[in-house]
Amino acid sequence: MIATVPRLLPGDTESLTAYQKQGGYRALDQARSDLDTLREVLAQTGLTGLGGAHFPFATKLNLTLAAPGPRAVVCNAAEDEPGSQKDRTLLERNPHLVIEGTLIAAAALQADVAYFYVSETLEAALQSLQHALQELAAGPLLGAGVELRVHRAPVAYVAGEATAAVRAIDGGEAKPTQQPPYPSESGVAGRPTLVSNCETLANLPRLFAAGNNGEASAQTWSRLVTITGDIDAPGVYEISPDETTFADLIAMAGGMTGASPELKAIQPGGPSSAYLPAAAADVLLRNEDIREAGSQPGCLAVRVLSHARCLVEEVAELTAFFAREQCGQCPSCRMKTQAYGKLIQQVQKGRGNWDMLHQLSTVDEFVADMPSRCALISMPTPPVASAVRLFREDFAAHIEESADSSCAAAH
Ligand SMILES: Cc1cc2nc3c(=O)[nH]c(=O)nc-3n(C[C@H](O)[C@H](O)[C@H](O)COP(=O)(O)O)c2cc1C
Ligand code: SF4
Description:
Radius of gyration: 22 Å
Oligomer: single chain
Strand order of the largest sheet: 6-5-9-7-8
Bound molecules: flavin mononucleotide, iron/sulfur cluster
CATH topology of the largest domain: Rossmann fold
Number of domains: 3
Strand content: 5-15%
CATH architecture of the largest domain: 3-Layer(aba) Sandwich
Order of helices and strands: HHHHEHHEHEHEHHEEHEEHEHHHHH
CATH class of the largest domain: Alpha Beta
Largest sheet: 5 strands, mixed
Distance between the termini: 63 Å
Number of strands: 9
Number of helices: 17
């Protein structure tokens, strides 16, 4: 019986001793001593991937398990998504939780190697992780036939995509590869590989502990949220999705700021998610509630915008980001992201018209049947389409009044 289930974020950086004092690594011990129960518990979990796509963890684990070993695990903490800081915060503050979760996944898969794939810019996270690994190396918890390695991910948004991570770890360019084969079939060095987000893996100790105690699933547990934008205390917060609304989150982060601090828009799931109007402040931060409200939860990189903001300026920045970060391998993605970037820039500079915005859906239709290697190609559509629909007056200011650097918000 495991008494204590660790939270995701403790107050201070957790040392090995402190982590063990509150029950840390007991779930791993138990998992290793009863692999059948471990696999059974993990196979039943409703946990979905917290890297953004929300693919069911149990399905991915079972697919990887179905392929013959040796197998590998990749803990994905590349985190170059604008606005997201949860994975680095987790590694800085609770590295042993991430390690324990990764080791539990490795035990379930009988993997012989596990990689921590961390952006090379995240020095504090890397240091905390290395320190925790050194603490572990001195004791008996490592071993069990699994080697732990740290791989520094290059700085590029696309480097965090699962197949790009596998390719980079194998010494190639950090760019997506054609699927199939999926990493679960053939990943790092040809091994069936589970690529999971850092926060997803950090849930495994408490998930196994609770499952093993016959408790309910992970659905009601805490989740990490990064809040940015016009907010007094931007940063990472641990919230309970069942109890926390966007308004509660804004209050936790000190309230809205700026020249005109009333809430205008919420972008709940990072740069590729659709905007929601201020009326969505009462929506709970549960995946299904966010979807029902018309957006996507993604990795809960929540951006809140006040009335001082112009949505044309916002989407101009986002579409320029996608055009810059597409990796150039797929003509369809190059074409779409550049078309979005150029057309929105024209509108932003006061040289656009409504027809240009209609052309965007023609671009979407044109590339719909063309091949592409990753999901970046579809990312510009939800934020732009929702901004045009919900904040038409901002676009009207740029189009009809030819405002070149500000919009209705500033007029
Ligand atoms: C352009 C792009 C960038 C991505 N960046 C990350 C990232 O930095 N971290 C991450 O965990 N997943 C990222 N993903 C999602 C991964 O492909 C993959 O779905 C995820 O690591 C799987 O973990 P999960 O199932 O636990 O979410 C990215 C996907 C795309 C298309
Ligand atoms: S869809 Fe875009 S980002 Fe993804 S591999 Fe193709 S070109 Fe690169």
